[in-house]
Amino acid sequence: MENLLSYIPLDLSLIAGNFDRFLYGVWTTLNLTFLALALGGVLAIPMALARAARHPVWNPVVWSYTYVFRGTPLLVQTYLIYYGAGQFKAVRNSWLWDPILSSAWWCALIAFTLNTAAYTTELLRGAIVDTPKGEVEAAIATGHSYAARMRRIVLPSAFRRAIPAYSNEVIFMLHGSVVASTITLQDILGVGRWLNGRYYLAYEGFVTAALLYFVIVFAITRVFRALERRYLRHLAPRETGMRPAPKTVAKSMEHS
């Protein structure tokens, strides 16, 4: 066994000895990612409705917001919030500075939330616009108000059809969370960089981080596949053709 380990170009003992730090990095990454996705999803629903309805006031405002946050890198957005906000004296003297804007964790959460909200808004807008007209017309014919149509017909249908595309957004958000390591947070990549820097390593920290991201992405894809099988079952292709006649019917035909 020792001879086999000698051929592995990684110091597994250092990885094992510091694996508790990687677990802390996993917690930080998942905490930031999924909390940002939850908050961003809540923000995206009313903005997607405003975009889909082409509201004369809110539609251009939301469009401008999504254009800015989808058109600039997440790293730049995080830097502007973490480093840029402190350049203004009014911000430093406000109640937001000490508990929120002076904290790297809060700045990362704000940046991630605003970024994923922009992408989710456009994703949901497309799903709402693509709602089959028959469903909407049926809701109108049965006397549903606009709010009732959205709550009971359009949004549930849009959420189901948005599952495959939203799975990509979740994975992209997970990958984008590596930005947190650049503002002193010890996420998965941050722990990998710390390990390499502490022990003058080249690969161990990054390889471990890559494997951990791989495992998390694999789990996310399995969850979304299960959701697709459950909520998009009616969209799966069905077998066509005539069913074979029952044996009793076939025998009676032969005797006739």
From TrEMBL:
<keyword id="KW-0813">Transport</keyword>
<feature type="transmembrane region" description="Helical">
    <location>
        <begin position="22"/>
        <end position="50"/>
    </location>
</feature>
<dbReference type="GO" id="GO:0043190">
    <property type="term" value="C:ATP-binding cassette (ABC) transporter complex"/>
</dbReference>
<keyword id="KW-1133">Transmembrane helix</keyword>
<dbReference type="InterPro" id="IPR010065">
    <property type="entry name" value="AA_ABC_transptr_permease_3TM"/>
</dbReference>
<dbReference type="InterPro" id="IPR043429">
    <property type="entry name" value="ArtM/GltK/GlnP/TcyL/YhdX-like"/>
</dbReference>
<feature type="transmembrane region" description="Helical">
    <location>
        <begin position="62"/>
        <end position="83"/>
    </location>
</feature>
<dbReference type="InterPro" id="IPR035906">
    <property type="entry name" value="MetI-like_sf"/>
</dbReference>
<keyword id="KW-0472">Membrane</keyword>
<feature type="domain" description="ABC transmembrane type-1">
    <location>
        <begin position="26"/>
        <end position="224"/>
    </location>
</feature>
<keyword id="KW-0997">Cell inner membrane</keyword>
<protein>
    <submittedName>
        <fullName>ABC transporter permease</fullName>
    </submittedName>
</protein>
<dbReference type="GO" id="GO:0022857">
    <property type="term" value="F:transmembrane transporter activity"/>
</dbReference>
<feature type="transmembrane region" description="Helical">
    <location>
        <begin position="201"/>
        <end position="224"/>
    </location>
</feature>
<keyword id="KW-0812">Transmembrane</keyword>
<feature type="transmembrane region" description="Helical">
    <location>
        <begin position="103"/>
        <end position="124"/>
    </location>
</feature>
<comment type="similarity">
    <text>Belongs to the binding-protein-dependent transport system permease family. HisMQ subfamily.</text>
</comment>
<dbReference type="Pfam" id="PF00528">
    <property type="entry name" value="BPD_transp_1"/>
</dbReference>
<keyword id="KW-1003">Cell membrane</keyword>
<feature type="transmembrane region" description="Helical">
    <location>
        <begin position="170"/>
        <end position="189"/>
    </location>
</feature>
<dbReference type="InterPro" id="IPR000515">
    <property type="entry name" value="MetI-like"/>
</dbReference>
<dbReference type="GO" id="GO:0006865">
    <property type="term" value="P:amino acid transport"/>
</dbReference>
